[in-house]
Amino acid sequence: MQNITEDYQKILEFICRLEDVDDLKHLFEYLDNFWQTQFGASPVLMFSRSKASKKAAIRDFWNRGKEEIYYSPEEVSLMKELIENSSEDTKHGGKEIGDYWVYSLGCGIYKTQHFYTCFKIKKDIADNVLDYFHQFMSATLTKISRYKEADNLKSLVHIDDVTGLYNQRKFVIDIDYAMDEYEKMRKSFSLIFVDIDHFKKVNDGHGHLVGSSLLKDVAKILKDTVRDGDLCYRYGGDEFVVLIPFSEYKEAQIVADRILENIKSETFTVQEGEGIGDASEFKLTVSIGIANFPNDARTKVDIINMADKMMYKAKQSGRGKVCSADELLKDDKKMSNE
Q1: Which of 59, 206, 310, 316 gives the lowest tally of CB atoms within 10 Å of its CB?
Q2: In terms of domains, do 137 and 272 share one?
Q3: For residue 171, which of 230, 233, 226, 246 has the smallest C-alpha distance?
Q4: Number of structural domains, the chain?
């Protein structure tokens, strides 16, 4: 009973310290520190599961490779199993392995994702303590969602009126911020340039109302495909940009490949009245370029030009492809060694 009371007190103190937290980044940082310092847990891992899927996905943006340092593959698999076997009403799950308990704690819903905190610890935690934690986290994610909605209303000046994505003005602000963050923390970032193939033929053949409808649909796929911390922009015309903070080529390549496949596999429908007589279906592909700062550039202009250059390289290579500056550098090195 004494241990349960102490655990309640720890969680209550944690809640009081988080009253003013209004973003996921700081929430998850505090969460990690809390479980390690107050309960002696291993560094926490964040997972998410889509509302439409049972499959658990590890959140690379938050975990930054911790799963490979502090956990065995079997422990990570168990965490995913606990999440995937949970139902809408399941708040938490745990299983004893050797000297440790492995826990999966539901944190609530943010946008379209269920979030979970997972860790291992050398003691069992009472169910009612974990229920209390879940209630707080669920309410906090709801609060952060509302803060985000309010911020979105304030930032309408930075929203493209056709697609609902950020516009070029916002992109300039955000890339400057990303470069400042690199100077302070030495954390690299990546740019993905996306251009719809043969889009001029769509506009010329079916009109700009049809084109605008398709741009909206492509923008929605972009937003649904990227990670929570990634930023999407309409750069102009049929060209889009994704800024991926704290990333190397590997993370950018994964996001770019998903964008490529999700757009390619989609059948786009333009309804009757949106510039055409009858409803029509379209298949689209995109050409994508990737560049990383500071690996490929030292200035804002250079990183933008490099990502743009890679996008055009994808077009020249046959369209419907992803080209990265990393591949270009490898090809140049290979040629110089021959």
Answers
A1: 316
A2: no
A3: 233
A4: 2
